Amino acid sequence: MPETPSAVRPDVRGPLVAIRGVSKVYERGRQRIEVLHHVDLDIPEGDFLALMGPSGSGKSTLLNMIAGLDLPSEGTLSVAGRRIDRMSSAELARWRAAHVGFVFQFYNLLPALSAQKNVELPLLLTRLSAVRRRRNAAVALDLVGLADRASHKPSELSGGQQQRVAIARAIVSDPTLLVCDEPTGDLDRHSAEEVLMLLQRLNRDYGKTMIMVTHDPKAAEFAQRVLHLDKGTLVEQAGTSA
């Protein structure tokens, strides 16, 4: 992983992510919509977890809470022993920058920037020098197999290559968690398999803890564990052969 000035890795005792009795309710006028219902879940460090379920099952809401993008209506959520459900918006923003890498379905790359500059973006929030930023971005691009595409802009890359640039951007600050929301949803089968193999390698060889939302059973096979949600409740857990 690239070197960063982030805080020393926490001494994790017990699960890296501990979710207890978490519910999420949205209120729209007089309507009350419960998206998650008393979810309990442990995610150990080094896990590769796939979250599956029908549309509206709560899987993306749960992912967003783990990533500090949303807060539970009730229950507790701890990451590396820290209660992120108690953090303010400003504290959560700082925590995300230091501890979470994001991979989205549609890459979210800036079209005017090269692959190298896109990967460097999270490091602009650190105190790293320009030289160190370039070096770390180069290491991340090499890890995803795109060292020779560093100067290319997104329009000059295939969909699979763009997603690998997005993964390089997600890992460049060596985050505690890597959260992936339908990372292969916009890719053809061959490109999707390349991306999933890369995620699996980052998990197995570098110990990255990953949580992936997917609707694709083939994608879920690359994870160590698969959890299914239905109407906001965990209903099934199954191992995979990955």
UniProtKB/TrEMBL annotation:
A Pfam family that the UniProt record links to this protein: ABC_tran
EC category: hydrolase
Gene3D superfamilies: P-loop containing nucleotide triphosphate hydrolases (3.40.50.300)
Record domain ABC transporter: where: 17-242
CDD domains with a match to the protein in the record: ABC_MJ0796_LolCDE_FtsE
GO terms of molecular function: ATP binding; ATP hydrolysis activity; transmembrane transporter activity
Assigned keywords, A-Z: ATP-binding, Hydrolase, Nucleotide-binding, Transport
PROSITE patterns noted in UniProt: ABC_TRANSPORTER_1, ABC_TRANSPORTER_2
Domain of life: Bacteria
One GO cellular component term: transmembrane transporter complex
Protein EC: 3.6.3.31
Membership in a protein family: Belongs to the ABC transporter superfamily. Macrolide exporter (TC 3.A.1.122) family.
Protein name: Polyamine-transporting ATPase
